[in-house]
Amino acid sequence: MSTHSKEQKKPLSTSGHLETCLTGNALLRTPYFNKGSAFTREERDTFKLHGLLPPNVQTLEDQVQRAYEQYSSRPTHLAKNTFMTSMKEQNEVLYYRLILDHLKEMFPVIYTPTEGEAIQNYSSLFRRPEGCFLNIEDIDRIEEDLDQWGNPEDVDLIVVSDGEQILGIGDQGVGAILISMAKLVIYTLCAGIHPARTLPVVLDCGTNNKELLHDKLYLGLKRERAGGEQYDLFVDTFVQACRKRYPKAYIHFEDFGLNNARRILDRYQPKIACFNDDVQGTGCVTLAAIMAAFKVNGTKWDEARFVMFGSGTAGTGIADQIQDAISQGTGKSKEEAFQQIWCVDKPGLLLKSNKDLLTPAQVPYARDDEEWHDKAHKELLDIIKEVKPHVLIGTSTIPGAFTKEVVQAMATHVERPIIFPLSNPTRLHEAKPQDLFDWTNGKVLVATGSPFPPVKHSGKEYEISECNNSVTFPGIGLGAVLSRTRLLPPSLIVAAVKALASTAPVLNGKGAGLLPDVTDVREISVLIAKNVINSARDEDLNEEKDIPTEDAELDEWIREQMWDARYRPLRLVDEADASAHAKGEAGTGSHKRTGRFEA
Fold first, then answer.
1. Could you confirm whether 111 is annotated as catalytic?
2. Catalytic residue (one of 35, 183, 498, 530)
3. Is 359 inside a domain boundary?
4. Does the annotation flag 278 for ligand binding?
5. Among residues 18, 156, 265, 183, which one has the least CA distance to residue 544?
6. Residue 183 catalytic?
7. Is residue 395 assigned to a domain?
8. Catalytic residue among 32, 71, 96, 111
9. Closest C-alpha among 32, 33, 57 to residue 44
10. Where is the Malic enzyme NAD-binding domain (predicted)?
11. Is 56 flagged in the annotation as binding?
12. What gap in Å lies between CA 314 and CA 421, rounded to an integer?
């Protein structure tokens, strides 16, 4: 096979030189290219950096050591988060390398929960803009504003939020740009998505957060949040503009409100390759944990019974993933699969008589009232006794809702009950893992929505798996980007979940966990991407045609296109021959689009 042929097979190759036409301060101001003190002497000659840097040439490892010492000196998690934001604006390779070397420690700082605090303080901490700000009062300018971020081939992944429901802290308006950026950081860390080929977007529709509306420093639109036809037109104009300007880009919707998240996903999923982490991501990682648990306790998909305690965006999203798994695994119709899932919310068990109280996502799960005539259905314990579920999942944010009585009622009819208290943060969990073990004599199979310390039972220690979306959505995105799939239907999602489930420590003799640790996520992302790519090809959805068919070649093909935090040699090219990336004019690190706009 010729070299040219191989290059064609790896369109996002990460080997060899990076081309740029930038020199001097322009190069140092472009985070994607900047190496700081690690520029070699030859590069300092070529790119006219002498006099702009101290003379000692250092390694990336030297820089990481210095940066970690600086990071560790910051007194609070928010101060550490702000320090990392500043580093990302200067040197992306160093930023990502530092996190990867200290992933477990830094993950809660650069993502949830600390990122939530940074978002709440966005306007007061603001120093310079990053990302694309679109607002509903300038809807006619959306195409023009999106055009600034590169040429059609320059963007692979767009994360967009309207800020209505951020990380459990509610409406944060324009501060949602930070959650779009944080998600893209996770994509790069966990799946090697090229950071310069991504675009974070906020759709500013106003805000119903009174504190923000009365804050004179608030940077977003100072108006109540728009809705109805005006809102739908805004979202649709954005989506259509993305498809026109960046036709290959995969769109990730993030932290939209309860009444819009599912509706928007349902509208666009049949038309474009898109994903909503709140609706689908939590469901994916939970479903993977269920698959692993079923392998342990022998439960069959055609007979499994599920109770969802909490039926908002996350709860119904999980239920949808379960329903898809039942349908694909058993051949049952969707309607038949729905009958294996009982959803509970504030009114109790969801019934058809609830009518106007039901959200569109809840409607398919409402049970016939006749089924529950003369049966108690307001309290969880009564529902558990009647349904006798194999799986109990909590997304209610009601602390302690899984009482000893509820848990022991499950354990009376299932040898190894599966109980997932997924509400977060930790103070809102439905039950403590230690209690679940104690109340079931160690028979429970558990995963949580927040990190918990190991559980001790009968002289043994058991690690508790966390249903962390970050082990799922990055690999799905990697598979979608590399295959250039036209759509992301449920079949591709289930294929991704199967890959994740296969990595469970409990199935591989590496422990009792139902899910892998986040430190293994890059290897997991390769497995997930392979399943997504193969499924896209099986369904003729892939627009990238030169994809290897043999497993080992496909593995290498994926890895070669995963960006890693290492310095690559730079090659100087003439501006006339330079791409948008080579000019520093694509992605959020563009010096021409962000570096000149100081607060």
1. yes
2. 183
3. yes
4. yes
5. 156
6. yes
7. yes
8. 111
9. 57
10. 279-537
11. no
12. 12
